[in-house]
Amino acid sequence: MYSIVLLSMIAIYSNNAFAQSTWKAPKEADKTVNPMKGDEKSVKKGKKIYVQMCVICHGAKGKGDGVAGAALNPKPANFTSKEVQAQSDGALFWKLTNGKAPMASYKELLTETQRWEVINYVRTLKK
Q1: Coil, helix or strand at residue 100
Q2: Model pLDDT for residues 84-94, shown as the tens digit of each residue
Q3: Per-residue pLDDT averaged across 23-41, rounded?
Q4: Which of 54, 71, 98, 122 is the most exposed place for a label (fewest CB within 10 A)?
Q5: Partners of 103 in the beta sheet?
Q6: What is the CB-side half-sphere exposure of residue 69 using CA atoms within 13 A?
Q7: Cβ distance 29 to 90 under 8 Å?
Q8: What is the dihedral of CA 59, 64, 54, 111, to 10 degrees?
Q9: 38: phi > 0 → left, psi -120 to 50 → alpha, else beta; which?
Q10: Where are the chain's structural domains?
């Protein structure tokens, strides 16, 4: 009996962990165009916001190794990874806007412009 319960709990945890590790924005998010793409001024502003709000979990270099991120499950995204950098600006914007635990939604905390600025900065964190 206990082994069945234990196996069930492991299966549920594994499915949740897998679902969270493969977090994908809806396809329509890819159609959202970054109105500030390539704007150096927005990158500088985005870095300032990133340092204030994102470093704690995602780390100074965006590798997902921030101090608070160590305690999170799933771990924060590594913005330098090919997987993150391959996502469209619209998908990253959607994720930043909507969040998914433990990632907070920034829809109410940052303006739309600020969220695009953060995306533009994240694009500079490529390996």
Answers
A1: strand
A2: 999 999 999 99
A3: 95
A4: 71
A5: 100
A6: 18
A7: yes
A8: 150
A9: left
A10: 24-125
CATH code for the structural domain at 24-125:
1.10.760.10
Nearest to 106 by CA among 90, 93, 121: 93
Separation of alpha carbons 123 and 117, rounded Å: 10
Query: In this structure, is the dihedral angle defined by the CA atoms of residues 6, 12, 14 and 20, taken in order, positive or negative?
Result: negative
Reading the block at residue 11, the tokens are 């299966």
pLDDT in tens, 95-120: 999 999 999 999 999 999 999 999 99
Distance of CA 119 to the CA centre of its chain: 10
| Tokens found for residue 111 | 């303006």
- Other C-beta atoms closer than 10 Å to the C-beta of 75 total 17
Give the dihedral sign, CA 49/60/25/81: positive
**If you write DSSP's letter for every residue of 38-51 in order, what string do you get?**
T-HHHHHHHHHHHH
C-alpha distance across the termini of the chain, in Å: 49
31 within 8 A of 90, measured Cβ to Cβ: yes
**Which residues is 100 bridged to in the sheet?**
103
